[in-house]
Design goal:
The chain has 295 residues and is of the alpha+beta class. It has 5 helices and 12 strands. The relative contact order is 0.12.
Length: 295
C-alpha cells in the first residue's frame, strides 16, 4: 500500500516537472511593435495662371492672374513657368502677351515680352504699322490729358502769306487740315503704359511738363502716315483731338476738307477788308505800295 502511494506521488511529481519543463521550453510569443511611419506630403508648387482667356497682344495686369497648384495634367516645365515665392504678379505687369492663353492655363516666360526688352515697342505695333515720335506742345496735346493707348485725330494749323487776287498787296491766310484720323498713341514722354510705374511715374511726367514747353509723343501710323506727320510738323502747329471710346474701331471717314479762315469768319475774308494800297505800273512791271492810314 505504501509502495503504491509512493508510486502515485512519484508520478504526480514527475508529471509536474515535465509540465514545468514544457512551459519553459515553449517559444515566446513575439511582441510586435507598431512604428508609426511619418509620411511627408509632397510639396506642390504654385504657378501663375490666367483667370480667364487673354488675347495675344494684350498687356498683362496683375488682376488678370492668380496662383494655382501645378498638376501633372497641365504639362508645364518648371523652368518655364512663374513660380510662387520667386516672383510677384505685379512684377510682370505691362508685359506684352505674344499668344492667346486659355483660362487656368499657366503663363510661360516665352509667352511674354517684358518692358525692359529691346523688342517691346516693335511688338506693340500692329502688322504693317510704324512708330514715329514728334515733339508736341502741351496745348497741342490737351495739357497732359491724353494717355498712351488713346486714339486721336491730328490737326495741322498753318499760316501762310498769299498775294491778293486783285493784286493789292499780300494777306496772311490761316487754315486747318485733318492730316491723320483714328491714330493710336503709343507713348507720351517715354511712358508706354500707365501699368509701368503707376501714379509715381505720372507725377514725374507732370513735373517734367511744368519745366518743358514740349513733350515727345509717339504715334502708331502707316508709312504714308509717318510722312504726313513729319511734314506737317514743319508746316505749322499740330493739335491732337481725342476720339471717343466707341469710335476707336470705326474706319476713318473721308478726310475733311481744309478749313480756311475766311470760311470761318467774314472778318478774315480779303474782299471784306478795306484796302490801303495803290498799284504802280512801270511798263510791264506792276507793284503794290501800301498807303499810310494816318493823317
Amino acid at each position: 500500500m505504501k509502495k503504491l502511494v509512493f508510486i502515485l506521488l512519484s508520478g504526480i511529481v514527475l508529471s509536474g516537472m515535465l509540465a514545468l519543463l514544457w512551459f519553459n521550453t515553449e517559444p515566446k510569443q513575439k511582441v510586435e511593435t507598431t512604428i508609426d511611419e511619418v509620411v511627408e506630403e509632397a510639396v506642390i508648387p504654385k504657378v501663375l495662371v490666367a483667370k480667364y482667356p487673354i488675347q495675344a497682344g494684350a498687356l498683362i495686369r496683375a488682376k488678370d492672374l492668380r496662383w494655382e497648384s501645378l498638376t501633372s495634367d497641365k504639362g508645364a516645365d518648371l523652368n518655364e513657368v512663374f513660380l510662387e515665392g520667386f516672383i510677384q504678379a505685379a512684377d510682370i505687369e505691362g508685359s506684352l502677351l505674344t499668344r492667346t492663353v486659355k483660362a487656368n492655363q499657366p503663363l510661360i516666360m516665352s509667352d511674354l515680352i517684358r518692358p525692359d526688352q529691346s523688342q517691346y515697342m516693335s511688338a506693340m505695333l500692329s502688322p504693317g504699322m510704324r512708330a514715329v515720335t514728334v515733339e508736341m506742345t502741351l496745348a497741342g496735346m490737351n495739357y497732359d490729358m491724353l494717355r498712351p493707348g488713346n486714339f486721336v485725330d491730328v490737326i495741322l494749323t498753318s499760316e501762310n502769306t498769299h498775294a491778293s487776287n486783285q493784286g493789292f498787296g499780300e494777306v496772311n491766310k490761316h487754315a486747318t487740315s485733318v492730316i491723320l484720323q483714328n491714330t493710336r498713341l503709343l507713348a507720351i514722354n517715354g511712358t508706354l503704359t500707365h501699368l509701368l510705374g503707376g501714379s509715381k511715374q505720372q507725377k514725374g511726367t507732370e513735373d517734367l511738363a511744368g519745366m518743358r514747353e514740349t513733350l515727345p509723343v509717339t504715334f502708331e501710323v502707316t508709312p504714308e502716315g509717318a510722312q504726313r506727320l513729319l511734314l506737317a510738323k514743319q508746316l505749322g502747329n499740330l493739335s491732337l483731338i481725342l476720339r471717343g471710346h466707341l469710335e476707336q474701331d470705326a474706319a476713318p471717314s473721308e478726310s475733311p476738307k481744309t478749313l480756311w479762315d475766311e470760311q470761318l469768319s467774314d472778318n478774315h475774308h480779303p474782299s471784306g477788308k478795306p484796302e490801303h494800297s495803290v498799284r504802280i505800273f512801270a511798263g510791264a512791271e506792276v507793284r503794290t505800295q501800301e498807303r499810310s492810314t494816318t493823317r
